[in-house]
Amino acid sequence: MNDEMSAMQAEPTPARSMPVPRLAERKRLLLAVARPRRRRQVVFACAGAVTAVAVTTGALVLTTREPRPAKQHDMIRCYSIGDPDGRAYTELSRASLPEDPGPAQIYDPVPSCASLFRQGFLRLGRSGVDKDTDPNVGHPVPKTLVACVLKNGQIAVLPGTECRQFNLPALSAR
Fold first, then answer.
1. Which residue ranges traverse the bilayer (predicted)?
2. Cα atoms found within 13 Å of the Cα of residue 56, Cβ hemisphere only
3. 38 and 108: one domain?
4. Domain hosting residue 139, numbered range
5. pLDDT tens, 75-85?
6. pTM of the predicted model, to two decimals?
7. What is the tens place of the pLDDT at every residue in 102-157?
8. 39-71 as b/e: b if 16+ CB within 10 A
9. Is 4 inside a domain boundary?
């Protein structure tokens, strides 16, 4: 009997052919079982990417919301259009006295730029300095001007309510 069992175990079973519809069903079932792993990997990759974007955006929002000091106070940009990337600005500086070393500092940027609007040198929505100006006549001043800090550390005064709308940090108090 042991010899018969050994002989039975040693002989392979003859190959049987499987009907074509059954082969197709088996293939479909195997692929259906294999696919969820790929979906999980995609889901985990997407979740990781979304998390990275959320963290980066949160950090950007926090850094742009936090007021910063300017790196330079000797020259400011007064914008007549709310676009810090555009060229619709005038640079403003103050003259220094001969006995004062270095350039004069500007610590009141919003009133300084409002004065340019009031005198007609800057006009809301127009690019550049207006040549037809009369400083004796009161010209319109934007309702709100906001002092922000550009990436290069320079002060920018823009028509707007918050620096966040320009993705810039607000100018902090000295």
1. 42-62
2. 6
3. no
4. 75-166
5. 888 888 888 88
6. 0.57
7. 666 777 889 988 888 888 888 888 887 877 777 677 888 888 999 999 888 888 89
8. eeeeeeeeeeeeeeeeeeeeeeeeebeeebebe
9. no
